[in-house]
Structure formats: structure tokens, C-alpha cells
Design brief:
mainly alpha
Length: about 100
């Protein structure tokens, strides 16, 4: 049911960037990601560039940040992606929309 709500997420112009960045900070997302620089994980702009033309881009990001998939970093190490500490669909869609707006 969450994914249906995600599909109907906010238009990218309606993103609350401040709230999205606060959620990212609270979850230590910037430990591995930056907006436009490669850290341990890819920059958000690269993620947005890869996904923003896909109709299910918000769903893809929400699934990734809520399911904790095993990911491989550029250095070849593997780890589980941290799961975001909220289940609020609006917060999740807003974070995904913010990433896609970059």
C-alpha cells in the first residue's frame, strides 16, 4: 500500500527541501552521500540524473531507503544501506523528490 502512495507522490516542484535535508541529516545520509561530490556512495546529483526520467523514480528511491539492500561501493566493499527512520509516506516521498530535484 505504501508504494501506491509513493506513485502519487508530490510533484518535484512541491518538495520541501529543508525538511528533506533535515531527514537526511538525522539519518546520517550525508556520511556516505553529498549533493555533487562522490563520497563512499554516489552523489545525489548522479542518482537524480540516472533516475529522474523514469516514471517510477520516487518509488525506486523509497524502496531503496526503506528496504536496506546490500550495496557495493566504488572501493568494492559491500554493506547494507541504512534504513530511514521514518515510515511516513509523505516524508519518504519528499526526500525522494528532493533527491530527484537536484
Amino acid at each position: 500500500m505504501l508504494l501506491l502512495g509513493v506513485a502519487a507522490g508530490p510533484a518535484r516542484g512541491q518538495v520541501d527541501a529543508e525538511a528533506a535535508q533535515a531527514l537526511a541529516k538525522r539519518n546520517d545520509c550525508f556520511k556516505c552521500h553529498a549533493i555533487d561530490k562522490t563520497k563512499k556512495g554516489p552523489p545525489y546529483k548522479r542518482i537524480a540524473g540516472r533516475l529522474k526520467t523514469k516514471p517510477d523514480a520516487v518509488e525506486v528511491i523509497v524502496e531503496h531507503i526503506t528496504s536496506g539492500p546490500v550495496i557495493e561501493f566504488q572501493d568494492g566493499t559491500r554493506d547494507r544501506h541504512k534504513v530511514i527512520d521514518t515510515t511516513d509516506p509523505k516524508e519518504l516521498r519528499n526526500l525522494a523528490g528532493w533527491i530527484l530535484s537536484l
